[in-house]
Amino acid sequence: MPKKISFIGTARGKFSAQEVHDAVVRVLGENVVGHVCLTTELPSNLDHVDLVVCVATMKEKVAERVPREKIVGIDLVPTTDFFSRVARIPEGETAYLFSDSINYANWLIMRCKENYIKHVNMEIIQTAALSEREVEEKLKDAKYIIGVENTVGQNGVMQRKFGAYIRKDAVIIGALRTASLESACELMQWAVSKEHRQMLENFTDKMQHLYGNLSEITDISNHLKSAFRQEAEHFSKINEDLGNEKERLTTLKDLAQNLLVATQNIGDVTGAIKHISAQTNLLALNATIEAARVGEQGRGFAVVAREIGKLADESKTSTEKIHSSIQEVKGFVNKIAPTLEELAQVIDYNQNVFMQASNKSKEEETSIVKIHSALEAINVMGSELNKDMKAMAINKA
Questions:
Q1: Beta carbons of 264 and 338 less than 8 angstroms apart
Q2: Which residues contact 45 (CB under 8 A, 6 or more apart)?
Q3: pLDDT band at 243 (very low <50, low <70, confident <90, very high)
Q4: What is the 8-class DSSP label of residue 29?
Q5: SS3 state at 241
Q6: Cβ neighbours of 279 (radius 10 Å)
Q7: Helix, strand, coil abundance in the chain, percent, nearest 5
Q8: Whole-number Å distance between alpha carbons of 145 and 160
Q9: Burial profile 364-383: b = 16 or more Cβ within 10 angstroms, e = fewer
Q10: Is residue 340 within 8 Å of residue 302, measured between CB atoms?
Q11: Which SS3 state, helix, strand or coil, does residue 122 take?
């Protein structure tokens, strides 16, 4: 809802100031809140007032105390009812125009003629140029008295000062004055312009607030953009490290496979040694039997044969131990290989996950960059619009 216009109606006299006030209210209606103040009593600080309205002839005088952009000067003219009542005065009668201003009196007579009131004689009682005695004499003879309402009306100067000299049957026609058509248009134009300025100011304030929010959002988007870039870099580093670990696991798996093959080869060798040991043991036994058959001559050979047999038994025992150890190594290697394979699969899966996360992070960074660019464009447009609105508000003022 638009804020009501606060104004002061001012003039030299209290009644004229009230007339100005009432004229503004009649033109602008409920959109205004007014006060009445004499021109000589206008306050020095008028920040709380939107408008000061005076009669047009006093505009320059009021401008000595009030900024010009806050002043509207209006012409006060009688309502049509005044001319209708004056027109009903019988032909040939004299209407006495009571006024302290000869210029205004002549202007009012001219307006009566413009409204086809030519059958009534007009005589001016200019209070500023006549003595009180002369005014009293003229009023005693006056059957029809016309003038401005605040001068000839019930509470006007004439009644208060010369009431005792007015005829009982006198017809007094007071002119209620209002703003002229041109003045009313000027007042309405000022009010519309004021409303537009207020709307522009409100819009400018909102744009400024929006501009601040956009700046804040831009800062956040910058922070997010930096964070996503760092996140993408971290994901890429992790992905690279996982790739290296995967390669090392593949190498380790190949080494384990080679170890398995090597232990198999060793097993084959120990089998051969075990076979040779059995053959050696058999030969040693045969040599012992033959040495016993020969007798005393073969005793030394028998000793050698026994030693060879012992050596064959020891070779057999050692070979069996080696075979047992090899079987343990093979069992251990057979367990390592599937574990390495499973670990490689886990690393491969994690690498894919991190790759997807890295790609998502890059996509988010790209999106943030686009948002940031859009926000910067909006920011620039908002700034330009804000400047245009301020310029429009100044031009309206």
A1: no
A2: none
A3: confident
A4: G
A5: helix
A6: 11
A7: 75, 15, 15
A8: 15
A9: bbeebeebbeebeeebeebe
A10: no
A11: strand
Residue 174 CB partners (closer than 8 Å, separation 6+):
82, 146, 147, 148, 149, 150, 151, 152, 153, 156
- As a whole number of angstroms, the distance between CA 231 and CA 361 comes to 7
- Give the burial string for 294-322 (b: 16+ CB within 10 Å, else e): eeeebeeebeebeebbeebeebbeebeeb
- Residue for token pair 């001559």: 297
Q: For the sheet containing 71-74, what is the strand order?
A: 32-38, 5-11, 51-55, 71-74
What pTM, to 2 d.p., does this model score?
0.52
Q: Which of the 8 DSSP states describes residue 129?
A: T
Q: Which residues contact 28 (CB under 8 A, 6 or more apart)?
A: 5, 187, 188, 191
Residue with tokens 């700046």: 215
Span 20-41, pLDDT tens digits: 999 999 999 888 999 999 999 9
- Encoded amino acid at 97, one letter: L
Residue 304 has pLDDT above 70, yes or no: no
CA distance 390 to 388: 5
CB 36 within 8 A of CB 17: yes
Looking at the chain, how many residues does it have? 397
- Strand (E) or helix (H) holding 326: helix 299-396
Q: Which two tokens stand for residue 127?
A: 């209070």
43: CB partners within 8 A, 6+ apart? 37
H or E element in which residue 120 lies: none
Location of structure tokens 């956040």: 220
55 membership: H or E segment, kind and range: strand 51-55
Quote the CA–CA distance of 204 and 388 in Å, as a whole number.
9
d(CA 92, CA 363): 99
Beta strands in 245-353 (DSSP E): none
The residue with greater pLDDT, 215 or 186, is 186
124 SS3 class = strand
183, two tokens: 């003045």
For the chain, report the end-to-end CA distance as a whole number of angstroms.
Answer: 21
| Ramachandran quadrant class, 132 (left: phi over 0; alpha: psi -120 to 50; beta: rest) | alpha
